[in-house]
Amino acid sequence: MKFTLSWLKEHLDTTASVAEIQRTLTMLGLEVESVEDRAAKLEGFITAHVLEAVQHPNADKLRVCKVDTGSGIVQVVCGAPNARTGMKGVFAPSGAHIPGTGLDLKPSKIRGVDSNGMLCSERELELSEDHAGIIDLPADTPIGLPAARVLGIDDPVIEIKVTPNRADALGVLGIARDLEAAGLGRRKQPDVAKVPGTYKSPVRWTHGYDVKPGVSCPIVVGRHFRNVKNGPSPAWLQQRLRAIGLRPISALVDITNLVTFDLNRPLHVFDADKIAGDLVMRQATPGETVLALDGRTYTLDETMAVIADSKAVHGIGGIMGGEDSGVSETTTNVFLEVAYFDPIAVSAAGRKLAIQSDARYRFERGVDPESVWWGAEVAARLILELCGGETSELVSSGIMPAWQRSYSLRPERARTLGGADVPAAAQLDILRKLGFGPSGEGPWSVAVPSWRPDVVGEADLVEEVVRVHGYDNVPAVSMPRETATSRPVRTPEQRRVPTARRALAVRGLTEAVTSSFTHSVLADLFGGVGDDLKVLNPIASELDVMRPSILPNLLQACGRNEARGLKDPALFEVGPQYKDATPTGQRSIAAGVRYGKGQPRAWTGPERPVDAFDAKADALAVLAAIGAPTDNLVAQPKAPAWYHPGRSGALVLGDRPLAYFGEVHPDVLAKLDLRGPAAAFEVFLDAAPPAKARPSKARPALKLSPFQPLERDFAFIVDGTIPADTLVRAARGADRAMITAAQVFDVYAGKGVPDGKKSVALSVTIQPAEKTLTDEEIEAISQKVVAQVAKQAGGVLRG
Asked: How far is 359 from 267, CA to CA, in rounded Å?
C-alpha cells in the first residue's frame, strides 16, 4: 500500500515528520517497507524560459535554444518538436543525472554547435511514458525554481506492508485513523454528505438469486450520470496516481482508482449507453465468457458472481469489469457500481481465473459493507466536480449483511493477556479513536465498526489497545524457571522435545530444520499418504504432500552435504510427521540419520561404516533422556519396509513400538541417488509412558555387598529366529534376588550346530548378598537359568 505525505495530510492534521510517521506506523503493525523521496532524483533541475529557439544550421530536426535559467543564459541544442520561443520548461544543467535514461550530462558539441544541459521530457524525469516533446509548463510559471516543487513531486512516497487481517489499512483513511489513535495528529472526517439526484435512474439494479447470508453479493448500490465529459483528469489527480505507481487513464477511471486507494472503496463505472436495460447481479452460467478490461477473455462457471444485462456479462463481481461496457473519451452517460462482495467468493473466483486486481485484493480481505452508501456519495461528488453533468437518485438491490456485533472487554485483560499496564481511560480513548464503541462500566461492551471484520473477540480488542499503546511499552519479563518446588511451566510431554534435542546434540548429531512437505514419490518410499495429505496448491512441485516421515528430508540433506564435500554427516530433527488429516494423525518424532562412516580412519583403530547399532544407541539415548523405561524395552525385528530387513529393529514396550532403528534399505538409497550407507532412527516422543516421579527425598546410600560376585557362562542351542534378547531376559529373570546381570558374549552357527539352529553364549553374574554361596547353591541357581531359558526360548544347554 503506497501513499504520499501530502495525501496522508488530507486525512490527518499533523506536524509529524516522515521519520516520526514511519516509526509510528511500524509500531502499529503497519510495517514501513520504503520511503521514496522523488525530489532527490531531480536535485538541480529547475524551471527555465526559452528566450529563443532557432533552426540548427546543420540539422533539420534540431533547434538551438537560448534558455534563461534565472541565474544566466545557457545555449541548449534540443530535438523536441515542441521547442519554441517563449515556452517554459524543465532545464537540467551539465553534470546532472537524467533518471529516465541514465545519462550523465556534460558540455558537448552537437553538429558543430555548443550545447550545455538539456530541456527534459516527462519520460526523462520518470513522470510518465510521454516522450513526444519536452515538458511545457504554464506561461506564468516562475523561472529558477526547483522543478520537483513546480511539478508537485516534492512529496515523499511511503509504502507499508499490510497484513491480511488489516483490510481497513488498504485506504489512506484507515492509516490516518491508526495514526490519530497513536497520538500523531487529529483525523479529518471525509465529506460523505448525500448528493441529491435530479432525476430517476434509467438503469436499475436487480438480483438473480434470493439474497440471504452467504451469497456472493448481498447488496449493491448505483446511480446514473448524464452529460458528463470524460477527458483527462486534473494534474493533481494524475500526479497522485503516478506517485503510487498507477497510470492515469481518464477522469472517470482515475476517480475510481482514487477512491479505491483513498478510502478502500473499490468502484466501477459502466458506459450507460452500452448497457441493454437494467443490470443484474447473479451467478454465471457454466461456459459463459466475458472480455475483461485486461484484454483477456475468461470462461466462467456457476461459482462466480457476474454483473450482466439482458444480453451479456459486463463484469466479474469484485474482480474486474468488462471491456465492452467500459468508459472511453466519447462516454457521456455513466452508471456507477458500488457493491459489497463476499470475501470467500471473490477469493475463490480470483484463484480459479488467476486474476490479480486491486479490487480483488481488497474484497477478499474484507471491505466495509456500509461503504456502499457513502462510497456512492463520494464518487458522485468527484464525478460532478471533474466531469460535470448531473446525477440521478440512488438505486440499490439486496440487503445489508449483518455486520453488527459487540464483545465484552475486561479492562484488566490489557495487563493479564497483553502484558501492558494501560489505564482504563486510555483504553477507552484508543478504542473510540479507532472507531469502536465501548459502553458500560467494565467489563465494557465494545461495538465493532463495520470496517474491522478481523475483530472477533476480546483478545482482538486487547490487541488493538496494546498495539496502539505500543509494544515497546510492554515490559520484558522472563519466563519463570522450572525448579523442583515450582509449578511446572511446561507439561512433561512438552519438555520431551527440548530434552530429545539436547540428548541428540550431546551424541554429536547436528540439528536440521526441514520442510513439513515432501515429494509424493519420496512419500511412497516411506509408507505413502492418502489424498487428505496432498497439497492442493503446493509452493513447489517437489513439495506436494505432507511428509509421512522426517527421514526422506534428512536423507536428502545428507546427500546435499556430501555433494558439497561435507563428509559423513550426522543430522537429526525433532518435529511432526503426518499419517492422516485426523486430530491424531500428527505425531511428534525425534528422527536422525548417520551417513557414511561411523568411525573415521585413525590411529586408534580401523575405519568402519555406520550400522544399525549406531542408530539403536541414538534411539536409546533419546528414550532414556525423556524418562522411558529402557530396561523393559525389547528389540524386535519389526521395523518398516524402508529399513534393511536384516539390519533393523523396533524398540517395543509391551506391544507398543517406541522407536524404529536400523540401516536404510539399499533400494531406498538408490532411489534417492545416495551411495550410503545410512543408519537411521525414529523415536515416537508421544508414545513413551510418563516418566516415573522422582522421589522427593534423598535416596539411601547404595549398599554394596561384601561378597565376591560370581560369573557363570552358559551356551544354549536355540532356533535361529529367536532373538538373543529373549535369552538374556530369561536368564536375568531366573533369580532376581541373586542374578544382577546377563549378557551375550558369543553367537555361533555352523559345524557342530544343527541346521536352522544357533549357539548363543551368555555370561551370567551372580551376586550373593547375605553369605558366600556353596557349590550346591550356585548349582541350584544355574539350574534355574537353564530351566528358564528352556521355558521362554526353547533353549537347550549345549554339550
From this structure: 8
What burial class does residue 623 get, using C-beta atoms within 10 Å of its C-beta: 0-12 exposed, 13-18 middle, 19+ buried? buried
Q: How far is CA 703 from CA 700, 706, 764, in A?
A: 8, 9, 21
What is the pLDDT averaged over residues 682-700?
73
Q: Which domains can be identified in the chain, with CATH numbers?
A: 2-37+156-187 (3.30.56.10), 40-151 (2.40.50.140), 205-398 (3.50.40.10), 406-473 (3.30.56.10), 492-684 (3.30.930.10), 710-797 (3.30.70.380)
Q: Name the grid cell of 457.
A: 473477540
Q: What span, in angstroms and rounded, lies between the C-alpha atoms of 701 and 724?
A: 34
- Distance in angstroms (rounded) separating the CA atoms of residues 417 and 464: 12
Contacts of 441 (CB under 8 A, 6+ apart): none
Q: Which of helix, strand or coil describes residue 767?
A: coil
Cα–Cα dist 353/299, whole Å: 8
Q: What is the pLDDT of residues 700-749, one digit of tens each?
A: 555 677 888 889 999 999 998 888 888 888 998 888 888 888 899 999 88
pLDDT reported for residue 554: 94
pTM here is 0.68
Cα–Cα distance for residue pair 226/234, rounded to 1 Å: 20
- Output 536 or 545, whichever has higher pLDDT: 545
**b/e per residue, 98-111, with b = 16+ CB within 10 A?**
bbbeeeebeeeebe
In contact, 448 and 407? CB cutoff 8 Å: yes
Q: Report the C-alpha dihedral over residues 713, 717, 720, 725, rounded to 10 degrees.
A: -30
Beta-carbon contacts of 138 under 8 Å, excluding residues fewer than 6 positions away, are 88
Q: Which residues pair with 205 in a beta bridge?
A: 279
pLDDT bucket at 520, cuts 50 / 70 / 90: confident
- pLDDT at res. 700: 52
